Amino acid sequence: MKTYIVDGYNLLWKLTPLLMERGQLEEARAGLEARLVEFLSAAGNTEVLVVYDGQGRGSPPGKPRHGVRVAFSPSGTHADEKILDYIQASLDQGQVF
């Protein structure tokens, strides 16, 4: 299985800068996750883990929804750091991109 791990907000600033500037984070995240579901329907045997910069304690990757899992980093920890952690933990579980 292939796993793509992406920094959600970095991607959203590239794809939907207007929504991000307006602070419409929930709408932006929902749109991104829907686009990723479309991508996965064509990719086959692939999943995506989207990691967002979070607040508070953060949250670990949730259950997959159509192949997309979402996680939030805790306050003071950038999504990039959590992505590196998830990559390290996934090295023996197939291809990680």
Short note summarizing the structure:
The protein is of the alpha/beta class and 97 residues long. The protein is built from four helices and four strands. It has a four-stranded parallel beta sheet.
Structure in words:
This protein has 4 helices and 4 strands, in the order βαααββαβ. It has 97 residues and is α/β, with parallel strands linked by helices. A 4-stranded parallel sheet has the order 3-2-1-4.
Write the layout of secondary structure elements.
Blueprint: E1 2-7, H1 8-15, H2 17-21, H3 25-43, E2 46-52, E3 68-72, H4 79-90, E4 95-96
Parallel strand pairs: 1-2, 1-4, 2-3
Poorly predicted spans: none
Q: How much helix, percentage-wise, in residues?
A: 40-55%
In percent terms, what proportion of residues is strand?
15-25%
- Assembly category: single chain
The major beta sheet can be summarized as:
4 strands, parallel
How far apart the termini lie comes to: 11 Å
**In sequence order, what are the helices and strands, one letter per element?**
EHHHEEHE
What is the count of DSSP helices, taking H or I runs of 4+ residues? 4
| Quantity of strands, as a count | 4
